[in-house]
Design brief:
With 207 residues, the protein is an alpha/beta fold. 40% of the residues lie in helices and 20% in strands. It contains eight helices and ten strands. Strands 1, 2, 3, 4, 5, 6, 7, 8, 9 and 10 form a ten-stranded mixed sheet that branches. The protein is globular, with a radius of gyration of 17 Å. The chain starts with a strand and ends with a helix.
């Protein structure tokens, strides 16, 4: 299964998103008997700037959709968190492996749930989530920046812990794994740009 936190839209026929990482999904599909894609799903048309996703032979499992940070952290928090935990619980025996695509807040909850339920998972880290959040809110008010600092400190610490313990695909060397001996243990696989090679997928599955 792939847990992808970017918003996905469904117009009754096609799935679409304004994020680009979905290009990799079709390349992962041939390596598994079946693939489920777990995403926040908006069933009310196509979002602005969205493009159609290639989800041939990929089953989509929708979570409650959110349109902004307030809905994510406040107004819809008690909708998507139980829905996510329920999806993981009901599929815990079906899935051989879960790929968490970036450590967004959704996938942070998913990672902790996978640990509790003993579901095997790997990470794909395309940039450091904590740094992205800090940059996005650098010019906001003091109260927002304080909240962002608290959240990004937590997110960064969790990422540093997980990449030491969980097989990780990354396009950079995360903080805390700078030493070559850490990378040599087989937990971290560096890829270039947005391309994930088949051998990296197979290596992660074997762990």
């Amino acid at each position: 299964a792939i847990l992808y936190s970017a918003g996905v839209h469904f117009d009754g026929r096609f799935y679409s998103t304004n994020a680009y990482q979905h290009y990799q999904f079709a390349h992962l599909r041939p390596h598994f008997d079946a693939v489920d894609l777990v995403v926040p799903l908006d069933r009310h048309g196509v979002g602005k700037g969205s493009e159609r996703m290639n989800l041939d032979r990929i089953n989509v499992l929708g979570l409650p959709h959110f349109g902004n940070g307030f809905q994510l952290f406040v107004s819809r928090l008690f909708r998507w968190v139980p829905a996510l935990i329920w999806v993981l619980w009901t599929n815990r025996r079906k899935w051989d492996l879960v790929l968490l695509y970036d450590l967004s807040v959704i996938n942070q909850v998913a990672a902790l749930t996978c640990v509790v339920l003993r579901i095997k998972f790997v990470l794909l880290v395309a940039g450091r989530h904590a740094d992205t959040i800090r940059s996005a809110h650098a010019k906001d008010g003091a109260l927002v920046r304080a909240a962002v600092w608290a959240y990004s400190t937590w997110a960064g610490a969790l990422e540093d812990i997980l990449v030491r313990r969980v097989p990780t695909l990354a396009n950079f060397v995360p903080q805390g794994l700078q030493r070559s001996e850490d990378r040599a243990r087989g937990r971290l696989h560096i890829y270039v740009g947005s391309m994930v090679e088949a051998k990296q997928v197979r290596s992660s599955v074997r762990v």
